[in-house]
Amino acid sequence: MFVLILGGTAEARDLAARLHGAGVPFASSLAGRVARPRLPVGQVRIGGFGGVVGLAAYLRSSEVTHLVDATHPFAATMTRHAAQAAADVGISLIRLARPGWSGRPDAPGWHWCGSLSDVCRVAGGIGARPFLTSGRQTLPAFAAWSDRDVLVRVVEPVQQALPARWTVVQDRGPYDVDGELALLRDHRIDVLVTKDSGGDYTSAKLDAAAALGVPVVVLSRPSSPAGLREVSSVDGCLALLPG
User: Fold this and answer.
1) Phi, psi of 80, deg, nearest 5
2) How far apart are the first and last CA of the chain?
3) Same domain, yes or no, for 206 and 231?
4) Are 155 and 38 in contact (CB under 8 A)?
5) 204 lies in the same domain as 179
6) DSSP assignment string, 93-132
7) Which tens digit of pLDDT belongs to each residue from 140-187?
8) Partners of 113 in the β-ladder
9) CA torsion, points 115, 121, 122, 127, in degrees to nearest 10?
10) 165 lies in which domain range?
11) Is the pLDDT of residue 26 over 80?
12) Coil, strand or helix: which one is 227?
């Protein structure tokens, strides 16, 4: 038995620690998009595979018996590649994705959108001082907001030029409610833009928005490949692995 974890998330690190403690042979793979990633225990490789063909070749050459896709809930391309490569090689695949925020009591009052263009349109019609927390790769979708005082929070530095009125905060969670309340108040935020990442690391902004009555616009998660086995916890993942 040899498990390959497609990681980069807190759940992936937790799974690595649990496998390590149980003496199960495994390795973790990170995409390499973050300059200083939080590394899991055990063997780690960093970098892409070169699509489905490259991933399938790696699975064969490394004699991987079980593949766990524990990438970010919005890493849709990697999830599709993992599903196809696992099917091509004939090994087990489990998708480990933390629960989204749709179960929160305030979630029915949010504006849920299926695309970034819809997010931009809906949020743009609600407020004039948005707080963008949807990730640096989504920023081009909001280029039309050059005439607004936009607060952007990212983990990694933004590479492209941004409008002069935009303010960028580079920070990494977990965040607390008091800090998020202060941020929203200081920048007079009147609409929060995020995506349904789930988990606790970045959920404090939602509590702060609820406390201040700030509307929330959310990008819904992408759909998963048909037939994919999905679990929402490390315990659930371990229950599907033999041994």
Assistant:
1) -65, -45
2) 9
3) no
4) no
5) yes
6) EEEE----STTSTTGGGSEEESSHHHHHHHHHHH-SSEEE
7) 999 999 999 999 999 989 988 999 999 999 998 899 999 999 999 999
8) 219
9) 140
10) 107-219
11) yes
12) coil
* pLDDT tens track for 204-215: 999 999 999 999
Q: What is the mean pLDDT of the chain?
A: 95
Count of domains observed in the chain: 2
Give the CATH number for residue 87.
3.40.50.720
Contact 9, 72 (CB under 8 A): yes
Residues 213 and 232 in one domain: no
Q: Which residues contact 17 (CB under 8 A, 6 or more apart)?
A: 40, 41
Sheet with 216-219: list strands edge to edge: 111-113, 216-219, 191-195, 130-132, 151-154, 167-170
Residues 135 and 74 in one domain: no
pLDDT in tens, 52-76: 999 999 999 999 999 999 999 999 9
Residue with tokens 């609600």: 126
My answer on whether 94 and 12 are in the same domain is yes
Phi, then psi, of 203 in degrees rounded to 5: -80, -15
pLDDT for 243 equals 62
Are the C-beta atoms of residues 211 and 189 closer than 8 Å to each other? no
